[in-house]
UniProtKB/TrEMBL annotation:
Residues 3-154 form the N-acetyltransferase domain. This is N-acetyltransferase domain-containing protein. GO terms for molecular function: acyltransferase activity, transferring groups other than amino-acyl groups. InterPro entries: Acyl_CoA_acyltransferase, GNAT_dom.
Length: 156
């Protein structure tokens, strides 16, 4: 079957199944205070947010979440690939797809926060052109900082 990137649609029949699988991954991958698991569905009901997930042979193996709070910028709010499926290009494919979604909203920049200790994520964001803007101390929790990163589009 191979892999396919799917945009989660609010009224689709696979909503519950996909969200269920994503929430399970979210719980496994992220520490509790950083995990959106509990208000995932709420977050996704917001008008200006979207989620893409990667399905491999019918199984959800990764997802990326994004939002566009204004016409000026968008944010990548989550990106994760299931443990056993990492280092195969899925994270990059998801991030690229989310960047395209944001671009199509005509925003000028995409920003995100990342824990500097998350080396794979940091490398991936840099690979796709994100630059560090700022270090925000205690962003995730006391003692756990975040880099704020951004990707700017040429205005055409
Ligand atoms: C970050 C994450 C999504 C990457 O997914 P992935 O599918 O393994 O990434 P890819 O295979 O597409 O790798 C793309 C690029 O990411 C970087 N990268 C991925 N894994 C890496 C690792 N273990 N060490 C260093 N760089 C890494 C590299 O730049 C790589 O490009 P390359 O293959 O040309 O070297 C995955 O590691 C993950 O889910 N981590 C836990 C959750 C997380 O930290 N999310 C981000 C914060 S919200």
């Amino acid at each position: 079957m191979g892999s396919v990137i799917v945009e989660l649609q609010r009224n689709s029949t696979n909503w519950a199944k996909a969200v269920g699988e994503i929430v399970k991954m979210e719980r496994k991958i992220f520490p509790k205070h950083e995990s959106l698991a509990n208000f995932f569905s709420e977050e996704l009901k917001k008008k200006n947010s979207g989620l893409l997930y990667l399905e491999l042979d019918g199984e959800v193996v990764g997802y990326v979440m994004y939002s566009w709070p204004s016409s000026l910028f968008a944010s990548i709010t989550k990106l994760a690939v299931r443990d056993n499926y990492r280092k195969q290009g899925h994270g990059e494919a998801l991030l690229k797809a989310a960047i395209e979604k944001c671009r199509s909203r005509k925003v000028h920049r995409i920003s995100l926060h990342v824990d500097p200790l998350r080396t794979p994520a940091m490398s991936l964001y840099k690979k796709l052109g994100f630059q560090v803007e700022d270090l925000i101390e205690g962003y995730y929790s006391p003692g756990r900082d975040a880099y704020k990163m951004y990707l700017e589009f040429d205005s055409e």
